[in-house]
Amino acid sequence: MAIKTGGGFLNEINVTPFVDVMLVLLIIFMVTAPLMTQGVEVDLPTTRTVKNLPQDAEHLVLTVKGDGSLFLDEYQVAEDELEGHLTRLVSGQMKQLYLRADAAVPYGTVVRIMGEIKAAGIDRLGIVAEETSARKAQDKK
After folding, report:
1. β-bridge mates for residue 71, sequence order
2. Could you read off the pLDDT of 101-122 as tens digits, one per residue?
3. What's the predicted TM-score (pTM) here?
């Protein structure tokens, strides 16, 4: 867009509004992105040493809540449909699976779920726990 000035036309694009809009969008995404990664809340068992859970898209997390409900990432799954979902989403795409089970879940339930995971053809399974010192700090709050 040419703007007429005293001596001729000024052929410059005003990018200030564009930059303003982009900065606002950047701030919005920076604030909302961590909120979108929140998963299902469980009370994890504790252990002395814990590796951090990878934050890439090459893995899925299967969560077993205290009431026995199952969540694949943040989507609830029925136990009878679990094997089909795991075969399609994990085995078919060569992803790593991590199991997060609430401390209140009976051992038999966790073993039964691990049997479903094995039946889906998944040989590599990571178990998620919470570090003991992190639990103590959380209990003090």
Report:
1. 63, 76
2. 888 888 888 888 888 888 888 8
3. 0.58
Distance CA 132, CA 103 (A): 13
Assigned token pair, 89: 């989403």
Q: Is the dihedral of CA 39, 40, 41, 42 positive or negative?
A: negative
- Residue in 90, 66, 70 with CA at minimum distance from that of residue 78: 70
**Binning pLDDT at 50, 70 and 90, where does residue 85 land?**
confident
For the chain, give the secondary structure using H, E and C.
Answer: CCEECCCCEECCCCCHHHHHHHHHHHHHHHHHHHHHCCCCCCCCCEECCCCCCCCCCCEEEEEECCCCCEEECCEEECHHHHHHHHHHHHHCCCCEEEEEECCCCCHHHHHHHHHHHHHCCCCCEEEECEEHHHHHHHHHC
Torsion sign over Cα 50, 114, 59, 42: negative
Residue with more model confidence, 102 or 58: 102
